[in-house]
Design a protein that fits this description.
With 168 residues, the chain is an alpha/beta fold. The protein is built from three helices and ten strands.
């Protein structure tokens, strides 16, 4: 199973379309908020199940602030992250995940890619495909793959650059 995780597109649906073309076939797409417009269009072009949550700039979209989703054997929380003060780190997010039994948490808001694989919880931020803020400012997304044994593997990709399949 292949899941594309994106965030902080801020209305740049051309970037979403470009990433979808770049990564090829996916089984699910997750958007961690700050969609800003075109949520129906995004669902249409994804051509697979889409999970989308509201970010701090999604005033006019009818999206949930958080969503719990099952991916294989993993209980996943999708949130934008601003309500967990992620600009100051992921401590509150981690505590919440542990308290409620999440295996994986996906968030956005910071526009900075992040992967923390812990013994009890994995915390992921795909970065931003439209307005990156990390060093080098390359637009990023994240691919989550579930292998034949049901194990999850994660990797960031750079939008508009060659993306190879994950090394499992």
């Amino acid at each position: 199973m292949r899941i594309l995780v994106i965030s902080d597109s801020h209305g740049r649906n051309d970037d979403i379309e470009g990433v979808l073309k770049q990564v090829g076939d996916i089984d699910m797409m997750i958007h961690c908020g700050d969609v800003e417009r075109g949520d129906s269009y995004i669902r249409e072009i994804a051509d697979c199940p889409v999970v989308m949550v509201a970010g701090n700039n999604d005033y006019y979209l009818d999206l949930p602030s958080e969503e719990e989703v099952r991916i294989g054997d993993y209980k996943v929380l999708v949130t934008h992250g601003h309500g967990y003060y992620v600009n100051s780190g992921v401590d509150y997010l981690r505590e919440h995940a542990l308290e409620y039994g999440y295996d994986v948490v996906m968030y956005g808001h910071t526009h900075v890619p992040y992967i923390e694989i812990g013994d009890d919880v994995t915390i992921l931020n795909p970065g931003s495909i439209s307005y990156p803020r990390q060093a080098g400012r390359k637009p990023t997304f994240l691919i989550m793959e579930i292998d034949e044994e049901g194990q999850a593997h994660y990797a960031h990709g750079y939008y508009k650059e060659q993306f190879d399949e994950l090394m499992l």
